[in-house]
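Could someone model adenosine-5'-diphosphate with this protein?
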Amino acid sequence: PRSNGAARHVTARVAPLGSRLVLALVEDRTRERRVEEVRRDFVANVSHELKTPVGAIRLLAEAAQGAADDPEAVKRFAGRMLTESDRLTHLVQQIIELSRLQADDPLDAPSPVRLDDVIKIAIDTSKIDAEAKRIQVVSGGLENLEIFGNEQQVTAAVSNLVANAVSYSDPDSTVLVTTKVDQGNVEISVVDQGIGIPSTELDRIFERFYRVDPARHRSTGGTGLGLSIVKHVAATHGGEIRVWSAEGQGSTFTLSLPVHRGSEQKQEERL
Ligand code: ADP
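Reply:
Sure, complex below.
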């Protein structure tokens, strides 16, 4: 009968489609589960990271209360409370920055980003820390380069790289920020002569909250979020971040961004 034939025909056509659909659903679920896992880890890490300085501030406040008749000790405790609360502020700023970056697509409204401006802001932002350590931060290479993307994000990425170079360098050294073009990509390199990174740690430093030997870096007050911000910005701009490092010699971080990808992608979407 006609209706049966039609039914078989439909079934035959639906079967492979159906299995593909199931596969897609499974893949989707796996991805969803992974996203959820990453989110849960992030929240757990954030809570842990926030608790550390808050706990320290509390202990210091208690210590100050207990030392009320020793003004020198109270002053010392207050100084350390200030340091810890600065650390907390920095941490909260970076967490907000990271979640804002993840929320918006930089290529929603790509605009020309002048790298000279970005580098100038990054160097200016690190000026106080650099001067305190007598570190010279100089820029060189090609001028007037532009990419298409999100200026705020690219500035955040380059600023984090320059800030790290200054943090992990010894006093009286030099940090160099260079720009060049290689195969349609703009490459911004931040070169330092600092403490370097052990090769075994190199592929972990881009993870959120990961810090190489936190005890060694305690005084830098870092959060372990800077490089994950850089990695995120590189990815959303269709670029990449590379690192070369040798312990005791220094590190070079290279942010490579396609010159035009942002505008081309938007054009393709419009077609
Ligand atoms: P942090 O806030 O700790 O600097 P990042 O995500 O920016 O966090 O960096 C992760 C870790 O990578 C740092 O804790 C540090 O150990 C290492 N690191 C980053 N940049 C440099 C650098 N220029 N020189 C040496 N070590 C670095």
